[in-house]
Design brief:
Layout (H helix, E strand, L loop, with lengths): L13 H16 L6 H7 L23 H8 L6 H9 L3 H30 L7 H14 L1
Helix pairs in contact: 5-6
Length: 143
């Protein structure tokens, strides 16, 4: 598709520019441009602003209405990837919770080791069946 020069000819208004753009689109694609209502809604959105830069990088001059000024101040919502990453990111409370979990796991391991030490310190002949089963279970877990 041919690109329009982004500067308007003196005396042209926005409707004249749109008419020329429609003619170019019709010549290039052999179909009428049917998404003008979408284009009019989205042309000043932040996502499409980079397309309004001229070839030398400066923005085109245009009148800003009160509606357009309000749109510029709006902040875009985060994208799908950013929101998923934020869900995966741990917050301060979650980090503290994870630290408490690791401390509790270490305490649990120490208590199991103490119980095993007591069971190993006793004479094997004096251990009950439950104590023998617990001793074997703890040995298999810790080793």
């Amino acid at each position: 598709m041919k690109l329009l020069s982004r500067s308007k000819v003196s005396g042209q208004n926005e409707n004249d520019v749109m008419k020329v753009a429609h003619d170019i689109f019709l010549n290039d694609y052999k179909a009428k441009f049917s998404l003008e209502h979408c284009w009019r809604e989205l042309r000043f959105d932040q996502k499409w602003r980079s397309h309004s830069l001229t070839s030398n990088g400066a923005k085109e001059k245009r009148k800003e209405t009160a509606d357009e000024v309000g749109r510029e101040e709006d902040v875009r919502p985060p994208g799908v990837k950013a929101s998923k990453a934020a869900k995966r990111k741990k917050h301060g409370n979650e980090a503290a919770f994870d630290q408490i979990e690791t401390i509790l796991a270490a305490k649990n391991m120490l208590s199991k080791q103490k119980i095993l030490d007591r069971l190993l310190g006793k004479n094997a002949d004096t251990l009950t069946d439950q104590e023998l089963a617990l001793k074997n279970k703890l040995i298999s877990e810790l080793l």
